[in-house]
């Protein structure tokens, strides 16, 4: 029983981070029809910003806020400075450019900070607290759940309750019509990239302390898992991204705990194939509404 | 007579090498409904797309309210009162009816005025008002046309560019749409540039008409004259 509780909480915490990262991928996919393969590298870059600020000021929280701001700025820079210049008529072009960005960002980070793992401490204790006598959840886990819930809630409010959210959704669904209605579609795209990049930064902040440490490739595995989660959920659906991310997190945790870590990736691939066989558009597919 | 609301001078535009519009010239003033008639491929839709900034002109000038429009992006034109309802109506099916309507005035800063516009539009289209919470893709063709019109009116337009509002609609609904246009024009002084294949229904509502052929405006005349003068009708409209 203890083991099951531990694996579930651990899977949920990891899954929450994957959900945020998948959500960031979905944000950009919906706005630009591009899978941002550079998202992992971009997120690591902001985590380095956080580490530098924390080192200079001694404050973890200044670094935390600094990374989110850096995430917003990096998203704007990548969209305005790189992606906007790419010819999107062939879908492969932005993918290749994004992969090039990965190499560029990782190389620059390596030159600036070195290619060693740099241990990053968690801001809160990672020792599990007892709940009814069972060691269940650590303060850091609670912090992860709280931050992820806050982010998901804020994004949901933004998209369903505000004029900006309405403009962003309209621009994604029908760019030309939106322009005719007074929506600055190019501007909405920039906002989308900024938000997604900041969400990616948050995911990096929440996951790097639980791994080997900070490294230019530290988010690569997270990217792969989150991308899988986003596809399982349905790339078009923010709700699907959260479900897919949490699902992959739980599956990895259970398989690692009960069967063995070697099989975790295989299990995730199996889940992906199974879901796509049954529902090719992902669990939360919106294809029917789109074509009506 | 004051300056015309819209003045088009020697407008040339197209996609790629071959121009679709050649030296198009016409003018219209506030409160006027002008029908643009002509066969398929005459350049009617391209004319609207050029006026609303979706297609870049390669020559000539567009003056709206006395000011040139070259290089002004579409989303800024809406703020000046030039609103384009595209062919197929452009209702966003993924959004609800209420969201579509809100989108029409989403750039506006005056919340009170926006609420007033919404009340007016809902008053004008009771069947839309009843279905506010539905997804827009659930609406019928006629309801979509009403929604697209209502959404355009949310922007308080001075000039409405309408591309084939009768497309796919039953004659009764088309007549209803045309009557609404007239009513709104009489109430607000709105000007309408109406592109139509349905010549009879367009001439029934328009004050003036411009006939296009192969990218040029070949004749402009009062709508009544085109309706009643058999020679003119034979020559330019073929019936």
UniProtKB/TrEMBL annotation, chain A:
The keyword Membrane applies. It is a multi-pass membrane protein. Keywords: Amino-acid transport, Cell membrane, Membrane, Transmembrane, Transmembrane helix, Transport. The keyword Iron does not apply. It comes from the Bacteria. It is found in: Cell membrane. The chain crosses the membrane at residues 12-29, 34-53, 59-78, 90-113, 142-160, 181-206, 212-232, 239-260, 266-287. Belongs to the binding-protein-dependent transport system permease family. LivHM subfamily. This is Branched-chain amino acid ABC transporter permease. It comes from Luedemannella flava.
UniProtKB/TrEMBL annotation, chain B:
Transmembrane segments: none annotated. Belongs to the ABC transporter superfamily. Keywords: Amino-acid transport, ATP-binding, Nucleotide-binding, Transport. The lineage of its organism: Bacteria, Bacillati, Actinomycetota, Actinomycetes, Micromonosporales. It comes from the Bacteria. One of its GO terms (molecular function) is ATP binding. Pfam families: ABC_tran. SUPFAM superfamilies: P-loop containing nucleoside triphosphate hydrolases. It comes from Luedemannella flava. Residues 6-239 form the ABC transporter domain. CDD domains: ABC_TM1139_LivF_branched. PROSITE patterns: ABC_TRANSPORTER_1, ABC_TRANSPORTER_2. This is ABC transporter ATP-binding protein.
């Amino acid at each position: 029983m203890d083991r099951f509780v531990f694996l579930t909480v651990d899977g949920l915490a990891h899954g929450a981070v994957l959900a945020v990262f998948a959500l960031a991928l979905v944000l950009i996919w919906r706005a630009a029809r591009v899978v941002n393969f550079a998202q992992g590298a971009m997120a690591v870059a902001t985590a380095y910003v956080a580490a530098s600020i924390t080192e200079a000021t001694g404050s973890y929280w200044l670094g935390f806020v600094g990374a989110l701001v850096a995430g917003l700025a990096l998203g704007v820079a990548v969209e305005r400075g790189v992606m906007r210049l790419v010819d999107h008529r062939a879908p492969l072009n932005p993918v290749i450019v994004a992969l090039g960005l990965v190499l560029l960002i990782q190389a620059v980070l390596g030159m600036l900070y070195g290619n060693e793992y740099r241990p990053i401490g968690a801001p809160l204790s990672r020792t599990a607290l007892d709940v009814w006598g069972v060691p269940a959840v650590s303060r850091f886990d609670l912090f992860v759940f709280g931050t992820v819930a806050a982010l998901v809630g804020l994004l949901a409010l933004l998209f369903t309750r505000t004029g900006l959210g309405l403009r962003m959704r309209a621009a994604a669904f029908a760019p030309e019509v939106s322009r005719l209605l007074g929506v600055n579609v190019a501007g909405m795209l920039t906002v989308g990239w900024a938000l997604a990049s900041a969400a990616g930064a948050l995911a990096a902040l929440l996951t790097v302390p639980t791994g080997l440490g900070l490294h230019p490739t530290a988010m690569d595995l997270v990217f792969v898992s989150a991308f899988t989660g986003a596809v399982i959920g349905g790339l078009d659906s923010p709700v699907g991204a959260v479900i897919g991310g949490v699902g992959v997190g739980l599956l990895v945790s259970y398989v690692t705990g009960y069967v063995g870590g070697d099989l975790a990736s295989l299990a995730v691939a199996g889940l992906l194939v199974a879901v796509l066989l049954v529902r090719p558009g992902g669990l939360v597919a919106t294809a029917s509404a789109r074509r009506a | 007579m004051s300056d015309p609301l819209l003045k088009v001078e020697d407008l040339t535009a197209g996609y790629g090498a071959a121009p679709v519009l050649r030296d198009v010239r016409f003018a219209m003033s506030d409160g006027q409904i002008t029908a643009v008639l002509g066969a398929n491929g005459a350049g009617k839709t391209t004319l609207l797309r050029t006026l609303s900034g979706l297609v870049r002109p390669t020559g000539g000038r567009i003056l709206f309210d006395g000011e040139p429009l070259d290089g002004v992006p579409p989303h800024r034109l809406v703020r000046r009162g030039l609103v384009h309802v595209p062919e197929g109506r452009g209702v966003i099916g993924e959004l609800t009816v209420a969201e579509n309507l809100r989108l029409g005035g989403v750039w506006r800063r005056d919340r009170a005025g926006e609420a007033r516009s919404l009340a007016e539009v809902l008053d004008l289209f009771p069947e839309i008002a009843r279905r506010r919470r539905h997804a827009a893709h659930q609406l019928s063709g006629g309801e979509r046309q009403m929604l697209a019109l209502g959404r355009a009116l949310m922007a308080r337009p001075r000039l409405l560019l309408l591309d084939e509002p009768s497309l796919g609609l039953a004659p009764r609904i088309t007549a209803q749409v045309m009557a609404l246009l007239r009513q709104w024009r009489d109430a607000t002084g709105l000007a309408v540039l109406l592109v139509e294949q349905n010549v009879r229904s367009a001439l029934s509502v328009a004050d003036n008409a411009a006939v296009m052929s192969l990218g040029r405006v070949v004749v402009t005349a009062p709508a009544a004259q085109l309706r009643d003068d058999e020679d003119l009708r034979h020559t330019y409209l073929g019936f």
